[in-house]
């Protein structure tokens, strides 16, 4: 299924921008003319795509560091406070997930609430971490009981920083270029990331983590855009999926890295220090040629094009297509910049981006549903490593399934398939489990609870599997649909929306785990709406990337199923066809009416001629 681009002219109708001033014919066709002229997907492109994969490993370390820096320990009260109750052991245990967790080795004749309040006045704690570290942020500053909310604020700050970073850095990448945003983000990532390791209290840790998340999002977004813009249409998806696998490789290596470091400060320094290698990108990594041409930086484009041709072993002196000659004629043009806010004046582009915003939020609903709701545990298998590697395994399986699905059905078909699976898993989990408990196993409560738990875990794993695929494909789809001049801002919007979905998890935890059911219902409704809206998206497989807002507007969709006849096209937007209506009147009624009209006209004409003849005869007689 191909995407059709309609030829449009410069005009503004009803306040909507339908096109942009046309660029030179050859220079505007980057995928079709410029990159093939420079050697296609040659040595230059492969080398720099490899340089975008290496930092993906460091990004994986940073994105999943919260599981270790803020992991909840098993707590034991060594010196309990003296109360009027009776104690049945020399120590007390408390799971620090929240302050109302059950106390297994404590007895008191007071109520459970008073028991927990008494336990939280413990003078000395003994912490036991399961993440491979001897000490982390929670154990260093005793963030348990009344201070447990600070842990959620620390998680909250990293996500909020990432959201603001995606929005701000995306706009800056469109305005100043991808390369400056990447270098500035790396510099400040080193400053704030290393400062986190020397935090003296929880508020300082949370504040610095906000700026760390802000800079990390700038690195992630700029590398993603650079990778997309280096590739020809046939290579974009495969190169992006390799980067995703590298990120998951960093996630897989994190437990081993934590076990080697043993201390959270050492772990933080080890995670951040590899970004020092990216300082060499100041000289090594160039600006995106696609962005330079789309924003009319023709002077900088000229030197970069010669560099690419030389690296790919292409002789551009012949210039059979006239690209360099055309570039010489356009050198005097001033650069033109665009901002993501211009999509509010478009007809189609803003709709395509909005459809892709609701992708990843429901993933955390499934992750939460995997936990046992009756116990206060935050793990499914009661083991940190089992839960962690289950999550990683689901993500890897999701990406492995995504590759053949997209290869066979395309971007739109693959997104629709995984969105339907996500919606079905969500609806079955919300509705089927209640029906099983209400109608089928009313008397056998033990079997009912066991069956409910097994079904909940099964649907949660399926939902996490499909929602992870939806997230990856939504981000990639947005990068292909959004024009080059505003690709950073559009991609930032989708990545920030994924951050909003992730943000709901610590917010719910901050409210003592309340509201998850309603949270799940809301995201399930958004998923159902997206299933309908996905049909409005164009298919971008093997299609050139849009370069201007006008190019993005001319993307039109075709039906999900191929046409029944060769050459038959069912487009949402087509040029008006010129039809011949000259034979509409050739019907029996029209023919009879035409005969009568012709006869009447002939009779009238003959009567007029006879009258005129009589008049002329009479005048001749009078004259004689």
Write a compact overview of the structure shown:
Helix content is 61%, strand content 3%. With 624 residues, the chain is mostly helical. The model is unreliable at 1-24, 84-116, 372-379 and 566-576 (pLDDT under 50).
Note the topology.
Blueprint: E1 4-5, E2 12-13, E3 16-17, H1 30-37, H2 43-63, H3 66-69, E4 74-77, E5 92-95, H4 112-119, E6 125-128, H5 137-140, H6 149-176, H7 178-196, H8 202-230, H9 236-261, H10 264-272, H11 281-284, H12 289-294, H13 298-312, H14 323-329, H15 349-355, H16 363-369, H17 384-440, H18 445-481, H19 487-510, H20 516-534, H21 549-553, E7 555-556, H22 588-623
Antiparallel strand pairs: 1-7, 2-3, 4-5, 4-6
Helix pairs in contact: 2-8, 2-9, 6-7, 6-8, 6-19, 7-8, 7-10, 8-9, 9-17, 16-18, 16-19, 17-18, 17-20, 18-19
Q: Would you kindly provide a written description of the structure presented here, covering whatever features stand out?
A:
- The chain has 624 residues and is mostly helical.
- The chain has helices spanning 30-37, 43-63, 66-69, 112-119, 137-140, 149-176, 178-196, 202-230, 236-261, 264-272, 281-284, 289-294, 298-312, 323-329, 349-355, 363-369, 384-440, 445-481, 487-510, 516-534, 549-553, 588-623; strands spanning 4-5, 12-13, 16-17, 74-77, 92-95, 125-128, 555-556.
- The strands form 3 sheets. It has a 3-stranded antiparallel sheet, with no helix packed on it. Strands 1-7 form a two-stranded antiparallel ribbon.
- A hairpin with a 2-residue loop joins strand 2 and strand 3 (16-17).
- Helix 7 runs antiparallel to helix 8 (202-230) and helix 16 runs antiparallel to helix 18.
- The model is unreliable at 1-24, 84-116, 372-379 and 566-576 (pLDDT under 50).
């Amino acid at each position: 299924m191909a995407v059709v681009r309609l030829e449009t002219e410069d005009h503004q109708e009803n306040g909507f921008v339908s096109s942009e001033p046309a660029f030179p014919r050859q220079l505007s066709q980057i995928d079709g003319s410029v990159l093939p002229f420079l050697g296609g997907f040659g040595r230059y492109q492969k080398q720099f795509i490899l340089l975008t994969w290496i930092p993906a490993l460091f990004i994986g370390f940073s994105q999943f560091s919260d599981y270790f820096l803020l992991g909840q320990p098993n707590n034991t009260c060594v010196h309990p406070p003296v109360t009027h109750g009776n104690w049945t052991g020399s120590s007390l245990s408390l799971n620090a997930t929240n302050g109302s967790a059950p106390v297994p080795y404590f007895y008191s004749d007071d109520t459970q609430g008073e028991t927990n309040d008494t336990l939280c006045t413990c003078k000395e704690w003994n912490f036991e971490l399961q993440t491979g570290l001897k000490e982390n942020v929670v154990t260093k500053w005793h963030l348990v009981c009344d201070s447990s909310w600070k842990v959620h604020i620390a998680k909250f700050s990293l996500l909020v920083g990432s959201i603001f970073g995606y929005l701000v850095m995306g706009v800056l990448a469109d305005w100043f270029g991808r390369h400056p945003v990447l270098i500035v983000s790396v510099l400040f990532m080193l400053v704030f990331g290393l400062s986190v390791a020397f935090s003296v209290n929880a508020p300082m840790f949370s504040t610095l983590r906000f700026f760390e998340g802000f800079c990390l999002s700038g690195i992630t977004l700029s590398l993603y855009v650079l990778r997309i813009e280096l590739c020809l249409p046939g290579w974009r998806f495969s190169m992006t999926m390799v980067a995703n696998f590298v990120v998951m490789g960093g996630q897989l290596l994190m437990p081993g890295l934590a076990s080697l470091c043993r201390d959270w400060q050492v772990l933080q320094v080890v995670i951040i220090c590899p970004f020092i290698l990216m300082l060499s990108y100041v000289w090594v990594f160039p600006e995106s040629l696609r962005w330079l041409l789309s924003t009319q930086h023709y002077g900088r484009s000229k030197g970069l094009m010669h560099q690419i041709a030389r690296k790919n072993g292409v002789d551009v002196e012949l210039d059979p297509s006239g690209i360099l000659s055309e570039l010489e004629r356009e050198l005097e043009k001033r650069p033109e910049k665009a901002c993501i806010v211009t999509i509010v004046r478009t007809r189609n582009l803003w709709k395509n981006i909005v459809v892709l915003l609701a992708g990843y939020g429901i993933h955390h609903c499934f992750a939460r549903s995997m936990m046992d709701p009756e116990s206060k545990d935050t793990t499914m298998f009661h083991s940190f490593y089992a839960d962690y590697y289950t999550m990683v395994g689901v993500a890897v399986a999701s990406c492995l399934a995504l590759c053949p699905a997209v290869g066979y059905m395309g971007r739109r078909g693959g997104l629709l398939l995984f969105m339907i699976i996500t919606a079905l898993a969500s609806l079955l989990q919300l509705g089927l489990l209640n029906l099983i408990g209400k109608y089928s196993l009313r008397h056998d409560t033990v079997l009912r609870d066991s069956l409910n738990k097994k079904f909940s875990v099964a649907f949660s794993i399926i939902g996490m599997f499909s929602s992870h695929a939806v997230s990856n494909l939504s981000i990639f789809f947005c990068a292909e649909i959004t024009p080059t001049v505003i690709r950073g801002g559009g991609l930032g919007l989708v990545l920030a929306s994924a951050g909003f979905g992730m943000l709901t998890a610590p917010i719910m935890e901050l409210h003592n785990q309340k509201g998850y059911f309603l949270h799940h219902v809301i995201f399930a409704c958004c998923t159902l709406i997206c299933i309908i809206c996905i049909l409005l998206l164009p298919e971008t497989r093997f299609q050139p990337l849009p370069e201007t807002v006008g190019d993005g507007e001319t993307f039109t969709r075709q039906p999900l199923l191929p046409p029944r006849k060769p050459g038959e096209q069912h487009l949402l937007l087509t040029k008006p066809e010129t039809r011949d209506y000259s034979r509409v009147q050739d019907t029996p009624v029209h023919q009879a009416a035409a005969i009568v009209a012709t006869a009447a006209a002939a009779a009238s004409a003959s009567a007029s001629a006879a009258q005129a003849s009589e008049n002329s005869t009479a005048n001749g007689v009078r004259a004689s």
